């Protein structure tokens, strides 16, 4: 009898989503107990382990580390979250999404381990993190690149010691779990650093607590954007990188192709690989940055642009990129924003950041206990003087309205506000455009 692994995986994911009372449950005691039963804590996960924490830019940093490592001939397993269309996106082996069967095997091992002796309850994210770790152990890659979830010190990914810990940015998000004090948030995210290992700070405006945590832990080498390493854009030939190796010797690479992702994150990716002991070559870096692709980050499908920006910091970066593109490629029509956001996000801050580069808004609601209605977004946009052309029940209904509206036929449309928003739009567009 044949087994439909796609269907079986969906059953597993539904089960994992139901089995723990809390969707997000920070803390390492439970997940460490199961990891120990699985033998995941006895030796390092891989010869090189890089973990990436931060508020924004984690996914792009992981993608660029992965692409550049592979361009240098290294085998690589990466772990990211959340996903857009398929859970399999979260674990990539040498650039390819993990197969259903390998994921299911990992879930089965975790289920058996957590039931040994006293049963241990695990959240959806915790099981996924352990599954990724099992894949790393099974595949034995040259390098493992792990994206931390919303936290740092108490995040399940922090079970595993990093040779290089990268902190991308620190901003307000997930306030109900992390609070609103940036110094406190920074200290928590810097909890992925280890004594005797290396750390990369990938923002020019990092809270003081992050470097203080590095000093308190006793990292062997701390590389800071704008000091130890940096980048510069070259209009004719892409961009340039300069930095230092673990001994403090100066390095530089130029020119490098624009990856279409934040150059702060690109520069951090290069510095992380250097500190991980990867002997980098210019031509291979060029190939790595030329080949990197990350769905949902200013992704274009005809007139549709998709970006998962869901907090003010990410929205400001998005607005900056749009202004830059407008200077070089003037638009013929209007720019509409299809906005749908979760109720626990700073919608006012996102709207304020995007308002100067937007001609009109189409609002949609998101379902679920964390959802936000389109009407709520309409009120917030109107309060800031924005023009709302339509409010729809959901993202698909908003897309269909835009497609049917004759006045919007020549307009550019930006879809943003949440991974859920982009996921629904991407699924619809891939089927029909």
UniProtKB/TrEMBL annotation:
Gene3D superfamilies: Mur ligase, C-terminal domain, Mur-like, catalytic domain. GO terms for biological process: folic acid biosynthetic process; tetrahydrofolate biosynthetic process. Residues 296-419 form the Mur ligase C-terminal domain. GO terms for molecular function: ATP binding; dihydrofolate synthase activity; metal ion binding; tetrahydrofolylpolyglutamate synthase activity. Keywords: ATP-binding, Folate biosynthesis, Ligase, Magnesium, Metal-binding, Nucleotide-binding. It is an enzyme of class 6 (ligase). Functions in two distinct reactions of the de novo folate biosynthetic pathway. Catalyzes the addition of a glutamate residue to dihydropteroate (7,8-dihydropteroate or H2Pte) to form dihydrofolate (7,8-dihydrofolate monoglutamate or H2Pte-Glu). Also catalyzes successive additions of L-glutamate to tetrahydrofolate or 10-formyltetrahydrofolate or 5,10-methylenetetrahydrofolate, leading to folylpolyglutamate derivatives. Belongs to the folylpolyglutamate synthase family. This is Dihydrofolate synthase/folylpolyglutamate synthase. It comes from Halotalea alkalilenta.
């Amino acid at each position: 009898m044949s087994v439909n692994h796609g269907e079986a995986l969906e059953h597993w994911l539904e089960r994992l989503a139901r089995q723990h009372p809390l969707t997000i449950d920070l803390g390492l005691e439970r997940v460490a107990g199961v990891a120990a039963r699985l033998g995941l804590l006895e030796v390092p996960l891989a010869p090189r382990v890089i973990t990436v924490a931060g508020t924004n830019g984690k996914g792009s940093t992981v993608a660029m580390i992965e692409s550049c490592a592979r361009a240098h001939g290294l085998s690589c397993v990466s772990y990211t979250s959340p996903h857009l269309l398929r859970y399999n996106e979260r674990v990539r082996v040498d650039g390819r999404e993990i197969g259903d069967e390998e994921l299911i095997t990992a879930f089965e091992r975790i289920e058996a381990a957590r039931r040994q002796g006293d049963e241990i309850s695990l959240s959806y994210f915790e099981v996924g993190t352990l599954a990724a770790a099992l894949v790393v152990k099974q595949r034995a890659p040259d390098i493992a690149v792990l994206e931390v979830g919303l936290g740092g010190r108490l995040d399940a990914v922090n079970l595993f010691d990093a040779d290089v810990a990268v902190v991308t940015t620190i901003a307000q998000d997930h306030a109900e779990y992390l609070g609103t004090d940036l110094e406190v948030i920074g200290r928590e995210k810097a909890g992925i650093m280890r004594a005797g290992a290396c750390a990369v700070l990938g923002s020019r405006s990092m809270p003081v607590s992050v470097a203080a945590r590095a000093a308190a832990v006793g990292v062997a080498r701390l590389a800071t954007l704008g000091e130890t390493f940096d980048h510069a854009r070259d209009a004719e030939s892409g961009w340039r990188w300069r930095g230092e190796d673990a001994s403090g010797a100066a390095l530089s690479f130029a020119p490098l192709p624009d990856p279409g992702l934040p150059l702060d994150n690109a520069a951090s990716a290069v510095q992380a690989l250097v500190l991980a002991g990867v002997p980098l070559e210019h031509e291979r870096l060029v190939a790595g940055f030329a080949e990197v692709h990350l769905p949902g980050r200013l992704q274009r499908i005809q007139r549709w642009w998709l970006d998962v920006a869901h907090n003010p910091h990410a929205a400001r970066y998005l607005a900056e990129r749009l202004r830059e593109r407008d200077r070089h490629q003037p638009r013929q029509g209007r720019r509409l924003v299809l906005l749908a956001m979760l109720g626990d996000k700073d919608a006012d801050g996102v709207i304020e950041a995007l308002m100067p580069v937007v001609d009109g808004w189409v609002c949609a609601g998101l379902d679920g206990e964390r959802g936000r209605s389109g009407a709520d977004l309409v009120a917030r946009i109107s309060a800031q003087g924005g023009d709302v052309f339509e409010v729809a029940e959901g993202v698909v209904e908003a897309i269909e309205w835009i497609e049917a509206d004759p006045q919007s036929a020549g307009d550019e449309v930006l879809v943003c506000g949440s991974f859920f928003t982009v996921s629904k739009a991407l699924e619809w567009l891939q089927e029909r455009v």
